[in-house]
TrEMBL record:
This is Lysine transporter LysE. The chain crosses the membrane at residues 6-26, 38-60, 66-84, 105-130, 142-164, 176-196. It comes from Maritalea porphyrae. Keywords: Cell membrane, Membrane, Transmembrane, Transmembrane helix. InterPro entries: LeuE-type (IPR001123). It is a multi-pass membrane protein.
Amino acid sequence: MLLGFIIATIVITLSPGPSIILLLVVSLRQGAMAGIKYSAGVISADTILISLSLLGLGALMQSSVLLFNLVKWAGIAYLIYLGIKQLRASSKVSVEATKVSGSPYLQGLGTTMLNPKAIGFFVAFFPQFIDPNQAFWPQLMLLGPLFLSMVFVMFSIIALLASRTKLLFESSKGQITLKYGAAFGLIGSGFAAAFAQRA
């Protein structure tokens, strides 16, 4: 289950979205260090949102395993929905149309904190990898920091790459590969969680 969590985290982190697009913009225009500061802002916001989300999950698990499983199945459906949405989206990721100003850290913090879907995503994502038959908090203490660490490392690597090679992210072939890789990865994560639930 831990390996599945790591793979799903990689796929979801690399999926095109507001945070990663702005990360590319900041890194391309202000350099790798600005991109890393932006990444630190994203992680700060994710820490707050994950804490709020998982505290709710902990209370839910203590009150009803049935309700927890209902949330888990809703999460499976949400992952598949995100994958289908990614398939239908344009593969063109434009970094030129986005303006950058102000502190990179505050941009990362604000972009993530003001995303109304963030808490819903974390509530949907984490239950796929939590065993309701085992103690909740030890699992949380492993998965939460692991998720945050992986996101920060991957965002920092993207910042370093983006600041050095613009063509890597402007290539139409690269954007198409990213689009379909992320889409099928999300759908696959949803189906894998569903089959694991039935096993």
